[in-house]
């Protein structure tokens, strides 16, 4: 067996979700919403199954979806992509990440990874033959600094994987952070695989700024989005990929031998959804912000120290003031004794170097959050 995968332990996400099922705990760990997603988008997918084409769609994606992606990003971010040569559809953003890494990385190439990080990054880099170079982001700001980038980048740097807004920290990188990262990418001619799946889920006046819009980064950036996150339909697994024609040609070949294509009815529905009025995307943010505030206020009343959440479905608490020193142990005790599942943020670090932060998902209905808070009130001293 390939040791990269055979040696991987069962992920904490699977462990916590399994415990939630077995014990009847409220699952605020796994990042999926209670909301079923917009009805008109789901109806469009259903009609496309019954009346549309259900054979292989084009490998790069349905033309109508690729055109919708280009139009959507022009409207929201004022960035131009040619739908024929610079836009691709994948079976989820994780497949897009894999395709980008397999297209770019050869054995021995170095890849800069910012931790805490989505757990797929490291095994995919290793499977591609890359050598990870970690930049450890520290709470509570989780920002970039010049010295850490100087330590990580070298003449062997081929790519950087960058997630903005950042899961699990729920932070939005500043313009200064983006410019600093761009400076190093341009200096070393390193490609940026920019995981922007949370681009529409930002709060408190924050506006998502794609890395590709920073001067000099247009042709160095592979921008990855997720229809599942945009429409609260995480099971649909439809990824949106934009890159220069030169880069896209190779990523497309990697995609061809991963999943080849994506369900055509979902592509039709996503194309429709991306053209929805701005009010849909504004309401998406405001509704999630309300849920964030509800969980934040409840946790504060329970005695937790809550860190700011600027985007994503998540917020984090610092358990050190509770006298806790091990986030895994704390989460295991919380699900077994108090009936609420959360995720220890140490799982997002390669070596578990930060052990005092716990992540909760607030993309839940009020009844779920109220029930969880009632149980969490018993946790703090």
From TrEMBL:
GO terms for molecular function: transaminase activity. Keywords: Aminotransferase, Pyridoxal phosphate, Transferase. SUPFAM superfamilies: PLP-dependent transferases. InterPro entries: Aminotransferase_I/II_large (IPR004839), Kynurenine-oxoglutarate_AT (IPR051326), PyrdxlP-dep_Trfase (IPR015424), PyrdxlP-dep_Trfase_major (IPR015421), PyrdxlP-dep_Trfase_small (IPR015422). Its cofactor is pyridoxal 5'-phosphate. Pfam families: Aminotran_1_2 (PF00155). Residues 25-376 form the Aminotransferase class I/classII large domain. The keyword Transferase applies. This is 8-amino-7-oxononanoate synthase. The lineage of its organism: Bacteria, Pseudomonadati, Pseudomonadota, Alphaproteobacteria, Hyphomicrobiales.
């Amino acid at each position: 067996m390939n040791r990269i995968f055979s040696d991987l332990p069962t992920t904490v996400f699977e462990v916590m979700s399994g415990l939630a099922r077995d014990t009847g705990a409220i699952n605020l760990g796994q990042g999926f919403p209670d909301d079923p997603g917009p009805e008109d988008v789901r109806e469009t997918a259903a009609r496309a199954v019954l009346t549309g084409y259900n054979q292989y769609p084009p490998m790069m994606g349905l033309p109508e979806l690729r055109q919708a992606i280009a139009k959507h990003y022009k409207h929201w971010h004022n960035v131009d992509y040619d739908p024929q040569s610079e836009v691709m559809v994948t079976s989820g953003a994780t497949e897009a990440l894999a395709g980008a890494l397999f297209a770019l990385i050869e054995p021995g190439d170095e890849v800069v990874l910012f931790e805490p990080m989505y757990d797929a990054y490291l095994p995919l880099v290793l499977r591609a033959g890359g050598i990870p170079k970690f930049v450890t982001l520290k709470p509570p700001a989780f920002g970039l600094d010049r010295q850490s980038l100087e330590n990580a980048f070298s003449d062997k740097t081929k790519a950087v994987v960058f997630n903005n807004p950042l899961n699990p920290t729920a932070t939005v990188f500043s313009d200064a952070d983006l410019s600093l990262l761009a400076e190093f990418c341009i200096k070393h001619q390193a490609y940026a695989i920019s995981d922007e799946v949370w681009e529409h889920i930002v709060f408190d006046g924050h506006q998502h700024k794609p890395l590709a819009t920073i001067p000099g980064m247009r042709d160095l950036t592979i921008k990855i989005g997720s229809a599942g996150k945009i429409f609260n339909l995480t099971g649909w697994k439809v990824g949106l990929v934009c890159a220069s024609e030169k880069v896209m040609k190779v990523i497309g070949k990697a995609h061809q031998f991963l999943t080849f294509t994506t369900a055509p009815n979902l592509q039709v529905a996503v194309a429709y959804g991306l053209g929805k009025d701005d009010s849909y995307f504004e309401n998406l943010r405001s509704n999630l912000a309300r849920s964030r505030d509800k969980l934040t206020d409840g946790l504060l009343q329970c005695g937790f120290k809550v860190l700011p959440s600027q985007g994503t479905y998540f917020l984090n608490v610092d358990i050190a003031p509770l006298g806790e020193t091990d986030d895994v142990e704390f989460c295991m005790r919380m699900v077994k004794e108090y009936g609420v599942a959360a995720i220890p943020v140490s799982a997002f670090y390669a070596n578990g170097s930060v052990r005092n932060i716990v992540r909760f998902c607030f993309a839940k209905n009020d009844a779920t959050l109220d029930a969880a808070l009632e149980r969490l009130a018993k946790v703090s001293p």
